[in-house]
Amino acid sequence: MITPAEIDTAAQRIGAYVRVTPCIELEPRAFGSPATLTLKLEMMQHTGSFKPRGAFNRILSANVPEAGVIAASGGNHGAAVAYAARTLGHMAEIFVPEPTPDIKVDRLRRYGARVVLIGTSYAEAYAASQERAQETGALDVHAYDQIEVLAGQGTLARELERQLGALDTGTLDTGTLDTGTLDTVLVAVGGGGLIGGVAAWFAGRVRVVGVEPERCPALYAAREAGEPVDVDVSGIAADSLGARRIGNLAFLIAQPYVESVVLVADEEIRSAQRNLWDRLRILTEPGGATALAGLLSGKYQAKPGERVGVIVCGANTDPARFG
Considering the entire predicted model, what is its pTM? Predict the structure, then answer.
């Protein structure tokens, strides 16, 4: 398990390298929801997703060998590792599945990484990266199943809680927690790094609800089976949320600290994307809109006056493809 103290330490470690991303409180009954909504705009983080938090924490916690760092990714994690490695002066080699969108592959190369396109799924790319790591001795930065990575992702929840406290008190002093400003937080789930870190930070003080695509149900299936199991992966959010199996760490944290997991259809994710654009001019990738899809679809039923935080976690999409 990961403690809030470890997440606090991670926040101090990575603070000079990551952005404090904004959150916005929406007007009453925004999107037709009876809840009071706050969106955490983590898609404005470096590289367009939350992933640099975990990447920086992992790399800064280790002695990086001359061979640099290595990672497998559907795109967002790889970009974060490549960006963190470049920032810290290390080489990076990133393995990604061949169907990864060009916009994500191009970004990896712009960050100076050596990119290896291999296989049709994250699982195949990960297996190839592990073989390569054995050859080179490079530091492995896992997308979602390392303590340092999850602790880094948990800094997002720490930051959100402090921002909501500042909004309520009218001060920018972020030293005091006030969980009275948040009842529930909705988190998109892929391999579980984000929800694991978020749930570890709140540790039962705030209701945490996972939202997964119906066609990438790794955490939902694990909870049904009582242990992580392999699932089939497809659909519009597979490039960012398409883990074949939930991470062991995330599953352990989810058992006591994630209240429920809801599944949303591809068309519901697309609708959430369009709502974010039409109403707020926020452009997201499908994975970035998945948490909101849980609310807008009614799969998560918010109560009147409930204070709900929604993490908008990624924006790496081709605008032309979105249109």
Answer: 0.92
